[in-house]
TrEMBL record:
Pfam families: ABC_tran. It comes from Kibdelosporangium banguiense. GO terms for molecular function: ATP binding. It comes from the Bacteria. Residues 4-218 form the ABC transporter domain. Keywords: ATP-binding, Nucleotide-binding, Transport. This is ABC transport system ATP-binding protein.
Length: 218
């Protein structure tokens, strides 16, 4: 089955805003794509539904063939932990923990022992080009390096899907290019990567774009 399948998905928030209107989307294994559109067009709502952080008002969301509506909150957290990596605009790293600790803690859900978590965290950081930053804390790293730590944390457990919400939004263009380069490498290594952006240039640099406007795919 596809990694992501949205069929007739509508999302109405309490208060009357309809953020998504009858959206269909199929994303296959190994795709790298952008969801692009202006502020308020429904990108974050779509990311929350694909990330199983929220449920649709109507329609079906399937992740790796699992119908989200058929799963309990507990089953959804398990699916999310095993299959989906998240990267946000605001890095969300633990300030008191070094790069290795930040990435290793992201593997707690696997039940792997401390040594094994550190081994896998180090491998992910090395692949992200941060082999010489393992014991640096977030405040000792540049913005681009922080975001690469966040990407390493998101992929250390080998997720099926990496969801990146405006991953370059807080970065200068050189650091942003470094982060996008890392996402391209992950794609080449087989990970399915979905990037949310309002930046046309970033969307144009990816193999597939889905454009949103007023809650619809256009
Ligand atoms: P984008 O990510 O493209 O900026 P959003 O999905 O955040 O778009 O928002 C789409 C619409 O839904 C906007 O009108 C926004 O104000 C509204 N919206 C988003 N989140 C909520 C919420 N939790 N409650 C009510 N309205 C929301
Ligand atoms: P292959 O074995 O097909 O050459 P690799 O596993 O070496 O693929 O990965 C190729 C690229 O993908 C690496 O250069 C790295 O940047 C990126 N990559 C793969 N896995 C990870 C990971 N877990 N964390 C960070 N980057 C990764």
């Amino acid at each position: 089955h596809p990694v992501i399948e949205l069929a007739g998905v509508t999302k109405a928030y309490p208060g009357g805003v309809t953020a998504l209107r009858s959206v269909d989307l199929v994303v296959g294994h190994g795709e790298l794509l952008a969801i692009v559109g202006p502020s308020g067009s429904g990108k974050s709502t779509m990311l929350n539904l694909i990330g199983t952080l929220d449920r649709p008002s109507q329609g079906t969301v399937r992740i790796d063939g699992h119908d989200v509506a058929a799963l309990s909150d507990r089953q959804l957290s398990a699916l999310r932990a095993r299959h989906i990596g998240f990267v946000f605009q605001q890095f969300h790293l633990a300030p008191g923990s070094d790069a290795l600790g930040n990435v290793a803690d992201g593997l707690l859900y696997t039940g792997a022992g401390k040594r094994e978590r550190k081994r896998r965290a180090e491998a992910a950081l090395v692949r992200a080009g941060l082999g010489d930053r393992l014991t640096h804390r977030p405040h000792q790293l540049s913005g681009g390096e922080r975001q690469r730590v966040a990407v390493a944390r998101a992929v250390a457990g080998d997720p099926l899907l990496l969801l990146a919400d405006e991953p370059t939004g807080n970065l200068d263009s050189a650091s942003g290019a470094g982060v996008m380069g890392l996402l391209h490498e992950l794609h080449k290594a087989g990970t399915t990567v979905l990037v949310i952006t309002h930046d046309r240039d970033i969307a144009d640099s990816l193999p597939r774009q889905v454009s949103m406007r007023d809650g619809r795919v256009v």
